[in-house]
Amino acid sequence: ARTSALAASQARLAADLAALAEREAAANDATRKQIESLLSLSRDVAALENTTAELQDRMTLPQRSWARAEALALLALAQRQLKIDRNIDAALDAMTTADSRLAQLREPALSTVRRQLTADLEALRSFERPDLDRITAQLRQAEIDAAALTTAGIAAENAAAAPVDGAESPGPLERAWLLVKRALASLVTVRSSTSGSSALLTRDEQNLQRQQLQLLLLEARLAIARADQKAYAAAIGEARAWLGARFALADPGVARLGDELAELAAVDIAPALPDVSGSLRLLEQMVPITRAGA
Fold first, then answer.
1. Max intra-chain CA distance, the chain
2. Cβ pair 214, 147 in contact under 8 A
3. What is the phi-psi region of residue 106: left when phi exceeds 0, alpha when psi lies from -120 to 50, beta otherwise?
4. Core vs surface per residue 266-282: b (16+ CB within 10 A) or e
5. Which of 22, 109, 116, 196 sits at a 20 to 30 Å CA gap from 3?
6. Which residues of 115-140 are buried (b: 16+ CB within 10 A; e: fewer)?
7. If phi over 0 gives left and psi between -120 and 50 gives alpha, with beta otherwise, what is residue 180?
8. Contact, 271 vs 293, CB < 8 A?
């Protein structure tokens, strides 16, 4: 009887152990499934985050591409302003705006471009420019003053004195003789006008010499507007030579203008500009990459 009881007890114990093992296996299986579910959820979250980031990149990529392209266009515009018009102020405005556009992107890849752009801006700001406005105003005033300068030579009457009111009109012989005298005086004046300070000059010839000086000064002003150093130097040189040969050097106005022209002759109105194209070249290398990625 005891043996039967012991056997029955062992059978129950074995059944309990089997049931416990079965429950443990079921619990382990449930735990494994929960872990797998958590891992799957984690992968889904990671994939969602990647998808979100990719969508954000796709949404902002056209904006970044546009900002880079805009900065590139501004830098190219600055180069044209410098090379064609020598407009330093307009070039500085364009380059500063381009730097602002690049700063808004906050991209580390653009740090090299921005460092070069900062150097380009500093080089252009420190460039010593001739005061073209002052020189132009000085030449314009010289043109006005030239109309009153004393010419070299002896002034001759340009025409005979007009008949006095009430005087008798000359007869045919008197008129003929008057015409002969005028013609002879004109021949003497024209021949003598090519000589030195003792030349006889009519009023018209004096005015022509002043007008020639004014034209040379005007040529110098126009050369400044074109930034043509060669034409400017030639006009100033010719004006100095004409002033020295055709005007009375003892006249204070002539002497003063001679000193001014000597000062202006030493001015380079179009000095070589610094090379500030480095940032443009660097950005040109990056913009095609951005367009390809877009």
1. 189
2. yes
3. left
4. ebebbeeeeebbbbbeb
5. 22
6. ebbeebbeebeeeeeeeeeebeebbe
7. alpha
8. no
Q: Using CA atoms, how far apart are residues 190 and 205, in angstroms rounded to an integer? A: 9
Residues with Cβ within 8 Å of 269's Cβ and at least 6 positions away in sequence, in order, are 130, 132, 135, 223, 224, 227, 229, 232
DSSP-derived letter for residue 151 is: B
**Angle of CA points 90, 95, 99, to nearest 5°:** 150
The amino acid that residue 100 corresponds to is: S
User: Beta-carbon neighbour count of residue 141 at 10 Å?
Assistant: 13
Integer Cα distance of 117 and 121 in angstroms: 6
The 10s digit of each residue's pLDDT in 183-239 is: 555 544 443 444 455 567 888 899 999 999 999 999 999 999 999 999 999 999 999
166: left (phi over 0), alpha (psi -120 to 50) or beta: left
248 and 154 Cβ atoms separated by less than 8 Å = no
Q: What is the pLDDT of residues 24-46, one digit of tens each?
A: 888 888 888 888 777 777 776 77
Residue-wise over 1-21: b if at least 16 C-beta within 10 A, else e? eeeeeeeeeeeeeeeeeeeee
Q: Which of 111, 109, 108, 82 is nearest to 94 (CA)?
A: 82
Chain center to CA of 20: 89
Question: What does the DSSP assignment read for 180-208?
Answer: HHHHHHHHHHHHHTTSSTT-EE-HHHHHH
